[in-house]
Amino acid sequence: MSDSEKTKDQIIAELRQQLEDQNHRLSLQVAVQRVHVEAATMRQSGDLGKVMLALWNGLVESGLRFERGSLNIVDLEAGTWQCYLMAPLPEELVEAYRSTPYFYQADVASGIHLMRSELLPLEFSQEYGHANPYMEPSFWVAPEDFPAQLEQMWGGPVPDSQQLIGRHGMDVPFSHGGIWCAAMEGESFDQDDMEIALQFSDAVDLGYTRFLDLQAAEERNRQLLIERAAESLRAEAMAMHQTSDIALLMAALCRNLETVGLAFDTCLISLTDEELDVLRLYAAMESDYEALIQSGFPIERILQKDLADDMQLVVTDVPLPFARENGYAMSGFEPRIIVQPDSFRDEMKAIWSWPGAPEGLAGSYGLNVPFDYGGIYICGLRGTVYTDPDLKLVEQFAEAVSLGYTRYFDIRTAEEAQRKLIADLEEELQTAHDMQMNLMPERPPEIPGLDIAGRCLTANHVGGDFFQFFPHNGKLAITLADVTGHAMEAAIPAVLFSGILDNQMESGASLEQLFSRLNRSMHRNLDSRTFVCFAAAELDLASRAVRLANGGCPYPYHYRSATNDIVELQVEAYPLGVQPDVSYPILDATLSPGDRLIFCSDGIVEATDTTDDLFGFERTATAILDGCRQNLSAADLIEHLFARLKGFTGDVSQGDDQTVVVVNVEP
Questions:
Q1: In the chain, what is the straight-line distance between the N-terminal and C-terminal CA atoms, in Å?
Q2: Could you give the dihedral angle defined by the CA atoms of residues 348, 352, 357 and 360, in that order, rounded to the nearest 10 degrees?
Q3: CA–CA distance from 625 to each of 112, 282, 317, 639 (Å)?
């Protein structure tokens, strides 16, 4: 019919139809453009839900009636296929799916949720005709085995799958997957519907490409985050020096689990103790401290309060046979995801002696990962479902802990051996110390008219200083020896010298003979680096006349009561053993009533303070003089000198043996 033959109403109807068609095309273009923009502005893989919502709304606005729809994504390199499904779900199904790994994003739109299927081989989609890039656009009717297909996709029976048998749909491929739509119950799609869906395929393809790029970048970032967390955990394990450092390791484990975003209720490190035949469990439990105590948890099992926010560190031992029988995290088992049985609460009550163990633990997911000396166990929050990537993550953490703990275990073994060696050496040194102390008299000789005292402070367990008194035939010999060197290096020659000295004193040798014989003996028996500083005085008990010789010791001091002053008795020669033939001069003096004779080893005058300043001869003489003027007893004078010395040196460690001998002539 020509335009001239058309009625006005016909022309108006045609124009209206053309306008409606044009508006429809424009609306479709706008809807496609919105999907395109949403795809182009994706910032993270989770934004796929926004793209799918834009697609959903675009299809609806374009006049397509459908009940549910999905993007089927293909990874050609990996040969896998996965379905992202948007569908309205009743509340009971939402709750059922929310605790599964298939629940990807809630409420993409009001009442509409985004689900993600199992990752399946590409052959699955090709065998059953699910939208993929290898097929042509086609219409589809759900076959009788459709519920079985859904069971493979969603890891178990789908509640409403039987109702979908015979439901109409269509598959629209794009370069990396396909769009799938299911028609409303009792309806079907036609070619116009197919054309509408095809308009969106290019925009969806862009969205998928962005999704893959973002997902790959996020996975790289996540792996870097996991590696850094594992390295942090390894460093903490390697820094362990004692068993109590397990608290720091547990805190690091909790901290790094949170860093990588793995939700948990309790994390546990188990360590095998073969000697005690137990598996020791260190667990960080999420609980308020007071609430944990009120629930009947034994306070003696709480190793550290508030390890982290609302985390209590607890410890218990489980017999190894029981641990092996029940598959605890320990060497010899494979990493696995577990679901706790109905008996789990009773087991918790038993192993922790915890009558108030929480209910609802049955069915909770856990990650059980062994390492060489034990394992890591992660218990999920109620409703948390762990998957293989979570298991792989904890395996990385377990490897890090194992490497660090192996080093700690080796260090601990070495330290235990070292402690045993030190204990053995301490025992030997104590024996040597006792031997050195036995070289000196337990108490000074009691001689009428004399007040005698001596004291030796060794710098180590053992040293080279000692003193001795020898009463004989109305005389008293006072001796002080200082063997060069420190500790055992000096102690052994000191014991040797003491025996020789005692033997010579028994022979009744004179002071001149004594020094000459001792010198030759030391020169024969000691190496060239070892010699003996030795001072001796022979006091006539009747006349108080004193004869004195000195080979290398500080000059003895003579306090003279009559003049209330102190003088050095300056007599000296080489230490014993330096040269074979040495002449040792003798100095004669007389001790009057109230006089004092004081011998000091070089450990007194050579003691230093924090600035390395020496205590020196002047301070030594001043301290002695002050004590004498206070008329202190022999023992109190020694105490006075050591107190003055300690006040000077402060916290500086003693570098050499310190020995003082005092003889007071009573008024």
A1: 158
A2: -20
A3: 100, 64, 66, 13
What's the rounded Cα separation, in Å, for the pair 303 and 316? 10
Compare 418 and 212 and report the one with higher pLDDT: 418
| Separation between Cα atoms, residue 587 and residue 382, nearest integer Å | 95
User: Could you read off the pLDDT of 140-171 as tens digits, one per residue?
Assistant: 999 999 999 988 888 778 877 888 899 999 99
Looking at the structure, do residues 190 and 144 belong to the same domain, yes or no? yes
Number of domains comprising the chain: 3
172 and 249 together in one domain: no
* Structure-block tokens of residue 601: 């080893």
**Contacts of 620 by beta carbon, 8 Å cutoff, 6+ apart:** 554, 557, 600, 604, 605, 641
pLDDT grade for 560, boundaries at 50, 70 and 90? very high
Q: Cβ neighbours of residue 109 under 8 Å, at least 6 residues apart?
A: 53, 56, 57
Please report whether residue 421 resides in a domain: no
- What amino acid is encoded at 232 in this protein? S
In a domain, 430, yes or no: no
Out of 162, 184, 216, a domain closes at 216
The answer to whether 78 touches 62, Cβ cutoff 8 Å, is no
CATH number of the domain within which 93 lies = 3.30.450.40
Backbone angles phi, psi at 539, to 5 degrees: -105, 125
Using CA atoms, how far apart are residues 87 and 52, in angstroms rounded to an integer? Answer: 11
Structure tokens at 488: 């055992």
- Of 155, 185, 216, which one is at a domain's C-terminal end? 216
Does residue 466 sit in helix, strand or coil? strand
Same domain, 449 and 408: no
Which residues touch 511 (CB under 8 Å, ≥6 apart)? 536, 538, 547, 549, 586
Host domain of residue 645: 441-665
Residue 224 lies in a domain: no
pLDDT score of 40 more than 80: no
Backbone angles phi, psi at 368, to 5 degrees: -115, 110
**Two tokens at 347?**
């087991």
Alpha-carbon dihedral angle through residues 104, 106, 112, 113, given to the nearest 10 degrees:
10
| Angstrom distance (rounded) from CA 46 to CA 203 | 17
**Beta strand ranges found along 274-423 (DSSP E):** 278-286, 302-308, 311-319, 336-339, 365-371, 374-379
104: tokens are: 């990807």
